[in-house]
Amino acid sequence: MPIKRISPDINGDGRRVGVVVSRFNAAIGDALLAGALRGLADAGVADRDITVVTVPGALETPLALQRLAQTGGFDALVALGAVVRGETYHFETVANESAAGVSSVQLEFGIPVGNGILTTDTDEQARVRADVKGFEAARAALELANLLDAIDEG
Q: Structural domains in the chain?
């Protein structure tokens, strides 16, 4: 019997996507959002099928993702924000807890979440990565939504 392979698919036609953007480090958030929206548009997601919400920071992102997931109105979600290392332990707490929360939402609800929350040492590193990271997070969420459908069908 041949091996069954499911090919990657980033087609976003008909997909409903929720995007949560952290307002902390707003310029980085704006660049992440621009990249994500470009990634969604390039994949065929219609503007009318995209919902963007903002939250104060990365620690608030998982709760907004959870509520979006609870509505059942989305095929995929995207988390966007930037956590830049400072002089205190706060960076590790925010980076670790926001990542754990994002993962928890996707596992609890079975909905893909593209994690575009940057964790960098400097503002400059975040600026350089923002557009591409937003694009990649959006595309990862779409690819996983399509993969889950293909698994369910097969």
A: 16-22+82-154 (3.40.50.960)
